[in-house]
Amino acid sequence: MAVATAPSALLDRPSSIDVAVIDTDIHITFPSPDVLTNYLAPEWREHHRTFGMRGHQGSHYPRAMPNAARHDSWPAAGGPPGSNLGFVQEQLLDGWNIEYGILNPLVGVGEQRNLAYGAALARAVNEWQLHDWVEPEARLRASVVVPWEDGELAAAEIDHWGGHSAFVQALLIIRTKEPLGRRKYWKMYEAAERNNLPIGIHFGGAGGGPITGAGWPSHYIEDHGGMPQAFQAQVISLIYEGVFERFPGLQIVLIEGGFAWIPPMLWRMDAAWRKLGAETPYLKRPPSEVFREHFWVSTQPMEEPLQREYFRQLLDQLAMDDRLLFATDYPHWDFDAPDQAFPIALDPVRKRNFMAENARRLYGLP
Amino acid sequence: MPLPPTIDCDLHNEVPSKESLYPYLPDYWLDYCRESAFTGPDAADYPATIPTSARPGATAIPALSEIQEKALNGAEIGILNCAYRVQSVRNEELAGALATAVNRWQIEHWLEKEPRLRASIVVPSQNPALAAAEIERWGDHPGFIQVILPVRSEAPYGNRRYDPIFEAAVRHNLVVGINFGGAAGNPPTPSGWPSLYIEEYAGMAQIFQSQATSLVMEGAFDRYPELRVAFIEGGFTWLPSLMWRMDKEWKGLRHNTPWVKRAPSLYWREHLRLTIQPVDGPANATHLGQIVEQIDSDEMLLYGSDYPHLHDSESALFATLPVPLEQKIRSENARAFYRL
After folding, report:
1. Nearest residue of chain A to residue B182 (CA atoms)
2. CATH superfamily of domain region A18-363
3. Do A155 and A193 meet the contact criterion of CB atoms below 8 Å apart?
4. Which residue of A has its CA nearest to B204?
5. Is the ipTM of this complex over 0.95?
6. Superfamily for domain range B6-338
């Protein structure tokens, strides 16, 4: 595979960012398959080698580039993008002077149809994050990867790591098998609330059904560009099915879903609730109010209107200045550079909050 | 100055029962409908008992007289969007026979009785060849100006399997209307089946977004440059956010879809129109005005009352608009788009 090992053009350009930066979406993976196997509980290693990971085949669209990665993110030392701590330090953490970074490994654990195997994989991935990444690098924090399709197994994994300062959230992907408001997931929320951990829900994955409510599209751009619809459906489910009435301490982080869709979706949800609220008698407040108290939103990939003024209007409509979280999505192709991500010049307060302070508050970082 | 009469692009004429179609069914399917357990298409997208299905004073399945009294009052033209979901009938031959029967019923009971009405051809779109034949059958009837498809489909409408439908619609100078609802068998969300009606109802906007994306990215507008698509009862406030997102996606990934020559928002401004109900407006009227401005086109919105369904008043929308734009939305955009 052709890999670019020269220093990135981005690194050659001095960062002009003048505030602290916390990156809420960094992707890491294994330098080689053996690393995962070695962290796996011994009784699962033979199963892992023989049968391996089995998710929802037939659901995937080839990315436009290998590993969905920036061409310059392949480590010179070998291995895939995001697998080499030294290179992540050089290219991302030092290169952009990142104060803290949140790890979101997307390694297919929660999509395993064999749930017990998925739980064993989750434990291995979490051990690996701790020992190979967070312990050697004080700027990094990890996300508890969980086997989300089984509420009890997911809750057990959250309880296992809940008190550990290396882990700042539990991590799911947006394409679950069922809408996340459904009761099969509630034990996981109970555990997250009990351990005071937010639940991060990240772009991607495959739950077995098509990415649109109208069946399978043909192209990667429809899958990648269709994720905001998946995010909207999950917000609709979580709020209308009463998750936050049952778990008032639960906080949700929407990661890599964009955010321009939020204001019109909330208007629609409020309008529907005014007419159909008899179906959700437990929901006493407008959905928009619940959303602004329970959701946080990462910024990448940011919708970009040609007329920059519309972006300012969007921020006003969103009214969530205290809950937007900057993210680069390193090492993926649609990486957002800290000094260029926003299409408008932000005032100093918004800039500080979006780039670091909101994330510092959410994740309890020093 | 009083406003000119409206062109209402969204009125519902629903089939009261399968028996209403008996006069129009061939013998075999008449016998089948009488003898079998078939009670009609299984879509349940607008259960008659649910508050949004009928506004106060309206009935969920209104008769012509009710439409004339309550919906056509002040209207120059009303476009009927029959939501009889033959697309949910797995037996495609039966679906085709039912579609033909519905269209005959529309002519006899609606078009021939009220000259202000126009109608939409119901087609078994799960079988595009049969659907194209149905369009052929009625395409030259002056009362039919549109082919109606449910937004929930087996595959997104940009998929080439639907080409025969678009080919026939374009040949007969018909708009393709895509409206709220349907039940194609797939779950209505990207993450499976939700528990509640309100989730399906609010979530229908996402399916419109997916269809808008598919029509551009899978090349339907490139294969059929004359294709005109109306989104009916899907809301419109989400459109700017989709434009910004998909224009950016196209910038990064357009080498994977080289037939798409322009930014998606430019295709939509040319080929796509949206009816205004549900307005889905914010409490803050300024924000609604911003959305209309962000759409960046005076041509895209069409007046549609969506009678008899229950929605918030459109007055909040019109209050934010300059009078010339209001007049375009009330009638002139539809006149131009539907070539009335």
Report:
1. A214
2. Metal-dependent hydrolases (3.20.20.140)
3. no
4. A213
5. yes
6. Metal-dependent hydrolases (3.20.20.140)
